[in-house]
Amino acid sequence: MTTLKIVTAASLLCTGAQAEFERVYIGTKNSKGIYFADLDSSTGKLTTPTLAAETEDCGFIAIHPDKELLYSTGVGAFKINSDGTLTHLNTQTTDGINACHISLDATGKCAMVAYYSSGSIASFQLLEDGSLSSAKSFHQHEGSGEHPTRQTQPHAHSIFINPDNTYAYASDLGIDKIMIYKLNPTAGTLTPASEVVIPGGSIGPRHLKWNADGSRVYLLNELDLSITLLKPLADGQLEVIETVSTLPEDTDKSDITCAEIRIHPNGKFIYASNRDLTEQGRDSISIFSRSEDGFQRLETVPAEVWIPRNFNIDPTGKWMLVGGKKSNDIAIFSVDPQSGLIKFTGNKVPFEGAPTCFEFMD
Length: 362
Fold this sequence. Notes:
The chain is mainly β. Helices cover 2% and strands 54% of the residues. It has one helix at residues 9-14; strands spanning 4-6, 19-29, 33-40, 50-54, 61-63, 69-72, 76-80, 86-91, 99-104, 110-115, 120-126, 132-140, 156-161, 167-172, 177-184, 189-197, 205-210, 217-221, 226-232, 238-245, 256-263, 269-276, 284-291, 294-302, 310-313, 319-324, 329-335, 342-350, 354-360. The strands form 7 sheets. Strands 1, 2, 3, 4 and 29 form a 5-stranded antiparallel β-sheet that branches. The model is unreliable at 1-16 (pLDDT under 50).
C-alpha cells in the first residue's frame, strides 16, 4: 500500500504514534479537472481536495500499476508528480462519443475506454513514456433493449479485465449484454470473443467487479436496481447464477437508479450505491455479505449526499468516501471490516464541482 506518512509533534509527545495518509485522486464533472486529497487512515479525516491538473472530460480515472501514471476518460495520459500534481502527456480521440469509463490491463500496457453515447469501446497501447497511442481497436456495439427511453440503442458503460488479464468485459446498458473481448495487452488490442445476455429485460448493465480469485463476477444493473452474480466458464464466457435487488422488495424504486459497485478489500462484503434522481433523500448505500455460494443484503443506509455516482473504500478497509454528484460534496463513512456495516462519521468535505470517481494510490 502506498501511503504518505506525516509525523506530528503532538502525536509524538502524546502517544508516539504517527498519522498515515493515503492519497486519493478524484475524477470530476463540471469542475476544473482532476483533484487529489489525503485521507488520514487513523481518523478518517480527508484534506481539502487540491487541483492536480486542469483538464476536461475527466469523469473516470485509472491509475497505472507502477503508480507513476494516471489516465482519464478525456482520453488523456498524465504523469504523477511527487507533490501530487499531474503533468499532461497527451490526449487521443476516436469516433466514440461521451467516454464514460477507462481501465487498464494488469500489466499496464493497454488502456480501454467505454463510450456511452455511441455504444462503443476502444483500446490504446501505452507507449514507453506513458503516453497513449492512437486507438489500436475500436468496436461498435449493435442492438437495443426493452426500456422505451434508455435502451433505444447501445450504451457501453464500462470495461473491465478479468483477474487472468486475458479478457475484457464491456457492460452495455442499452442492450442488456456484457460484450466479451479477447485481450492482447502487448499489442493493445481487443478482439470480439462472445457476449452474455443478462436476462430480465430493462436490466441496464453498468459496472462489474471480480472477486480476488476470479471465480465470481458481480454485475451492477442500473435500471432495475440489482446485482447479478455470474460464474466464469471456459474461453472467457460467463454463466448467470442469480440476480438480487439492491433495495428491499417493498421499496418504491421509481426514479432511483444504481451507480457503483465495490468489493471490500477483505473480499467478504459487496457495496452498491442507489441514486435518487428526484432529490427526495432516498440516495443510499446497500451492503451485502458474500460467499462462494451467493450473497445477501445486510443493510441499506442513507448515502448522505445527492446522487452517489461513485464511492470507494480505502486500502485499509476502514473508510468509505461517497461523492455527491449533485450535492457537490464528499461524505465519509467508517467501515467495520468484521460486519461489513458502515456508519456516517458526520464529516463532509465540500467540493468544487461534481466528484465522480475515487481512486486510491494503494
